[in-house]
Amino acid sequence: MARAGLLCLVLLALAVSAQALTPSHHLTASDVARLEARLGQPFTDLQSAYFSIVGLSKLGVTVADADDACRFLTSNLDPTNIESLFFAAESSQALSGCEIPVSNETRDLLLAAVSEDSTVSQIYQAVGALSALGLPLASQEVVSALSARITKEDSVLGIINALQTAARLSQQAELGSILEEIEDLAARLDDLGGLFLQFEEGLEATALFVSSAYALSDHMDMEPPLKEDQVIQLVNSIFSKKSWDSLSEAFSVACAAAALSNNRFHVPVIVSAQGPATVSHSQPVLQLQVTDVLCQPLVSASVLVESASSVASKSVILSKAPFALRDGVFELNFMDSQPASGYYQFAVAVTGDSRLIANHVELKVKVSTEVAITNMDLSVVDKDQSIGTKTTRVDYPSKAKNSFIADSHQNFAMSFQLVDVNTGVELTPHQVFVRLHNQKTGQEVVFVAEPDNKNVYKFELDTAERKSEFDSMSGTYALYLMVGDATLQNPILWNVADVVLRFLEEEAPATIQPKTLYVPKPEIKHLFREPEKRPPTVVSNTFTALVLSPFLLLLILWFKLGANIANLSLSPSTVLFHLGHAAMLGLMYVYWTHLDMFQTLKYLAIIGSLTFLAGNRMLAQKAVKRIAAEQSSRLAKYRSLR
């Protein structure tokens, strides 16, 4: 039992590894061109110049006019601003022969920014400017300042800036604590369906994380704590977007693409077919493009077919066959293996570099062929066998010279075979239909032709049993054979012959209506439930009177008891309160007759607010009067006692 359980675990592990993730998104040649165009826009300020110049350099492209770009940097430089110095200094590094003037005041300004009182972004920009300008700095002091700021700025972008800063410091500095932040940031990534990994902050933060993580890892010569599946998910997330909202977003994608295509540890492999993954006897060579995420060919790699098996039969046709490199494309003559037409599953391995990941991929390849129709025999068979059967052989693509006549006492029969033009092997395409088209009315009737156990297709039409499908319409029908399949290069529509069908006259319809399968269907009319009958008017009036009777009783009791309205004042608050109360009662009636719940609540909020304020004011006035009356009463009593 223990061995069986261990075997199951091993098989499960092998199955999971066989279904390893491969990049589903990357930069194609057109994507790279569009990214270059986005980064190549005219400069508007130093920041846009930095994004364009440095971003294009990541793609291996230089700006059109380096001298003009350098003049733009120097003319827009503010030597008293750290951000301005960073953009200008970093951009000048990507331009040949471009120098940024540095004064002692500029150097002191940058060195002063490297402290615990500065933000991580300011430290990063100061260190970047110092490094680009070739000015000395104390790397260990920078690490101390970064470590202190990270505890205060525990944000994704802040830690990414810390990684970018550490990649510019001396290797003798203690950078281990900064490198550990890569694993902490990786734990913050959101997994979207097992295919994508990204930060809540968006594409820009995700791409900058990848570029900074590999920059620091390369700088320290230590593999980043990222699993292969995580790297592939990051690739899918970064390159799934094909248009970029801002220049900074395009810059971050360029940085990530450069980092993933050129680092010491992980280089994702993109394997795709050159054009459609289809081979045939006329096009026997399967061509593959093997590139990095930046669409640069990996010409130093070796490509091997580990196995090529038929999807239908699961039989292995080819194994351990290498591809040959020709003009940057890997080629394999698969038709040398003489595969039958159909689909084949290729397991391809890309080797030659220990950095390659996602280098075991599976491709589905289609083998196409041409079909030929042979042994097409047509005949009319008498049901009682009183008349001998006469068979007519028709060769594709000719049409039978004579028509075939069949009535209710006869069956029309057809048999044929489908073979591969190149090999002569019998084929069974997915779609083989026989269509009969009434030349007078346009009516079409389609049947499916099925092969027997010898792969001979046979079709027999019993006019007596099939009369309902033809609506008993006698006449001349054009007989067509339709053959189609995804693996066929030459789908066939062949007008084989004309067939005259004769049905009994009493079964024929009174008027022959043209009939076709492709006409609008009759309109579907829905019958809604009729509303229920309302009760008689007498019942409605009686119910209304019963509802109003308590109000009438209230008025009668007030009249008999002698309602005291002497204390009712006509102040604005009192009048507004009673009007508001009456309006709410009226609103209930309108709600019952015209309004819905939401409209009623809106009006009730307005009326209720006014009524509340007026009632509060009215009660306050009454309280003041009552207190004044009590004080007057006590004062009069006190005077009477004196």
Summarize the entry for a quick read.
With 642 residues, the chain is of the alpha+beta class. Helix content is 41%, strand content 21%.
Describe the structure.
By secondary structure, the protein is of the alpha+beta class. It is built from 16 helices and 23 strands. The strands form 6 sheets. A 5-stranded mixed β-sheet has the order 5-13-11-7-8, with no helix packed on it. A hairpin with a 3-residue loop joins β1 and β2. α11 runs parallel beside α13. The longest helix has 45 residues. The protein is flat and about 145 Å long. The relative contact order is 0.05. The N terminus is likely disordered.
Task: Give the tally of β-strands.
Answer: 23
Radius of gyration: 44 Å
Derived from helix and strand composition plus strand pairing, the structural class reads alpha+beta
| Shape estimate | flat
Strands ordered across the widest β-sheet? 5-13-11-7-8
**Termini gap:** 113 Å
Which band does the percent of strand residues land in? 15-25%
**Mean pLDDT, rounded to whole units?**
86
**Uncertain parts:** 1-18
Count of alpha/pi helices: 16
User: Main β-sheet, in a few words?
Assistant: 5 strands, mixed
Helix content: 40-55%
